[in-house]
Amino acid sequence: MSDIKKELWNKKNPYIAKISTNKLLSGFSSKKEIRHYEIDLGESGLNFEVGDTVGIFPLNNSRLVNELINRLKVEPSYVPCGYEETIFTILQKKMEILTPTKRLIEYIEQNINNKSLSRVLKNENRKDLDDFKWGMDVLDFMNLNQNFQFQPDVFLDLLKPLQHRAYSISSSLNVHKNHVHLTVSSVRWASDKRTYNGVCSTFLADNSFSNSKVGIFFIPNKLFRLPENSNKDIIMVGPGTGIAPFRAFLQERKYQNARGKNWLFFGDQTRQYDFIYENELCELKQLGILNRLDLAFSRDNVNKNYVQHEMYLARKELFNWIDKGAYFYICGDANNMAKDVDSMLHKIIQEELKTSYDKAKDYIKNLKREKRYLKDVY
Q: Comparing C-alpha atoms, which of 31, 10, 368 is closest to residue 220?
């Protein structure tokens, strides 16, 4: 395939790839639904590096689409004014219907009598608004007053276009030729009246059987790369699906015959049901590719144990690796886990250097300048 052809596959023109594998990783009694996907790149000529992400173009849940159409009081075949496609096609393929836009919320507030919503918007406090709309989708806001009738064309103008979702790649192209692997947690929740689905995670989970197709493109992440010198040691902190890029890192390090040591901190709720890729990790440890594996399962003990606690227990060796040139990586939740891991790293540096917090901050700033402290957080 020519280089010209390769360049055609991008966000505006995604490659339609075949999903060849959809496998449940989490155990039967897990509170999570984590799945492993393998996507066949066919004759696309697409390639990527470990650390990159893949953009996936989902379709909206057809049940939610039909509920919105019923709320609009039109037929699925209805073509709105100014559009050439049916309302069903537009809502399924073109519009974001899970997360309401601020202009939709403001429009609803202006046309119904809801004192709680009016108070939140009047206060202009983002946290208050986030708390109000937590767990609510577009339909929930429309139903704050079920007597208010939306004009379909006006309603569509209040939505935003449906965007791709980005996922960390969990495989090495050198090991799994012409394929890309993903590790995705299916997002589902429920209220007293309704059930909800994450847009892309459940699109993959519920619709990617029998070699189904999906639009993809690759997103380079040059700020999350393995060391150019494969003799360098690496420390990886990736609980839950945060393990994804580190699975790729370990595959690549094995392929490279890298002499640098590899240390992984992994955790989740329970060892029995949430230790994803357990067999792979244990095999890599037996082969000496994964030199150290520290585990934290928060629901297995009375006192919840997280990856940052395991870091502290191993603080002397952790500091020794870093001080001798190891690279430190974090992947996962930006709001909680990554902050907690960062705080613990500062604490460890401060204690091991027997210095002030400001000096520890300077030490870590230097790690970042040397590109030895890298994050892939979301």
A: 10
Query: Which string of b and e fits 26-58 if b means at least 16 CB within 10 Å?
Result: beeebebbbbbbbbbbeebbbebbbbbbbbbbb
Report helix, strand and coil shares of the chain as percent, to nearest 5.
40, 20, 40
- CA dist., res. 55 & res. 363, Å (int): 35
CA distance 52 to 63: 33
Which residues share a beta bridge with 331? Answer: 376
Find, among 297, 35, 59, the residue nearest to 185 by Cα: 35
Residue type at position 289? I
Phi, psi dihedral angles at 314 (to 5 degrees): -105, 25
Q: Which helix (H) or strand (E) holds 75?
A: none
- Nearest Cα neighbor of 221 from 375, 27, 13 is 375
pLDDT in tens, 58-96: 999 999 999 999 999 999 999 999 999 999 999 999 999
Place of tokens 């379709």: 59
Strands 53-57 and 262-268, how do they pair? unpaired
pTM of the complete model: 0.94
Contact 107, 208 (CB under 8 A): no
- Counting other chains too, the contacts that 33-36 makes at CB distance below 8 Å and 24 or more residues apart are 33/185, 33/186, 33/188, 33/205, 34/183, 34/184, 34/185, 34/186, 34/240, 34/241, 34/274, 34/276, 35/183, 35/184, 35/185, 35/186, 35/204, 35/205, 36/170, 36/181, 36/182, 36/183, 36/276
User: For residues 30 and 300, is the Cβ–Cβ distance under 8 A?
Assistant: no
pLDDT for residue 189: 95
Q: What is the mean pLDDT of residues 7-33?
A: 93
Whether the per-residue pLDDT at 180 is higher than 80: the answer is: yes
Residue 130 burial (10 A CB sphere; 0-12, 13-18, 19+): exposed
pLDDT band at 345 (very low <50, low <70, confident <90, very high): very high
- Residues found in the chain: 378
**How many Å apart are CA 104 and CA 142, to the nearest integer?**
9
Give Rg (Cα) of the chain.
23
Distance CA 193, CA 179 (A): 41
Q: Which two tokens stand for residue 146?
A: 């079920």
